[in-house]
Amino acid sequence: MVRVLLLLLVLAAWARAQVVIPLWHTLGEGGVLEGEAQSFNQTQSRYRIEPRFVGDYREMGVLLAAALRNGTAPPLAQVELGFLPVLVKEGLLQPLPAPQIPDLDPDLLRLGEVKGRLYGYPLGISVAVLFYNQDALQARRLSPPKDFAQLKTAAQRLSSRSAKGLLFSADVYSFASLVLAQGGTLSQGGGPALNGEGALKSLEYLLSIHREGALQVRSATELISAGADFLRTKAFLAMGPSSLLPAVKSRTQLPFAIGIAPLPLEAQGRVAASGSVLVALRHASAEERRGLEAFYRHMAETSRQLALARGVFYLPLSLKAQEAWGKEEVGRLLLSQKDRLAPWHGDSPLLLWAPPLEEALERVLKGQTPAKKALEEAQARALKIP
């Protein structure tokens, strides 16, 4: 009886000592983050990470905003890189200490910064790339285009009465990636520059392909339809984050081989970086923040980073994992873009300006509104957003 009581006392003390930390995420129910949380919980007893899948990035934003209003938000969350400036602007995040992990790539770690302060621990970085239908390009003896003139020519040659050469999703990420690649920006001094020279140049470039009958356009709310267009050979070239291909492969059997190539770049162009970061919300306690650091050290281990890179096509933060992955074809291609990476949001709360921008893109590419007029109206609306 005494032994039973002692055991109960020990278990009670252990339960009191353990810090339970809810973490909302978008990486899939039963996916990699939930698996790593379970592994972390089994390897130590101080912290218990309790992950909860809440949907995609946009659903996360809606649910998190509501939870912050009613006091039910978790202390930790995994969010997309573009949410960092928005959450910082709203005063919803706490800055994080630099992780004491010698093997981390300092350049990739800096992608978790906003205005020079670290607010997010990157799990991995997704690279903007060009996807292409290998069979279609081989049939027309085309190579993946290396510049924007070649991209336009390839789109024209791949087009027919029943298909378009290039697929473009008129969402803020896709357009920002194009603007960056062509050397422009959608922000200036922390404010919107939706009607700037870079935005107008990129939109007119898309419009020129559209006028040639070589552009398949889908709105920001038609992402599933956009994927279906590509898989049903309604289009043969598409821009997107490197992590998109493994996500599609996990849900459907591909009817043809999909190739990955570097996104065409102009001389001053940059490659859009997106990806996942772990953040501590403003109400997280000091102990919960220490739990986040411990979980990040677990996630940053070389073997875990390499597995994540191979499975999700993220650039790993671990330098040793980069060295190993660089010996593989996909890893070598994606790592070759590292020196020209820039956060797709341009260190600005670009997601706040997404509604007027995406509406402008659709009005131009699916309607008859002149590009300059649509972008000026989008800029005027964005300036009114607090």
Q: What does this protein look like?
A:
This protein starts with a helix and ends with a helix. It folds into two domains: 184 residues, D-Maltodextrin-Binding Protein, domain 2, CATH 3.40.190.10; 183 residues, 3-Layer(aba) Sandwich (D-Maltodextrin-Binding Protein, domain 2). With 386 residues, it is of the alpha/beta class. It is built from 17 helices and 14 strands. The strands form three sheets. Strands 1, 2, 3, 6, 7, 10, 11, 12, 13 and 14 form a ten-stranded mixed sheet that branches. A two-stranded antiparallel ribbon has the order 4-5. Strand 8 and strand 9 form a beta hairpin. Helix 8 packs across helix 9, helix 13 crosses helix 14 and helix 16 runs antiparallel to helix 17. Keywords: Signal, Transport. Belongs to the bacterial solute-binding protein 1 family.
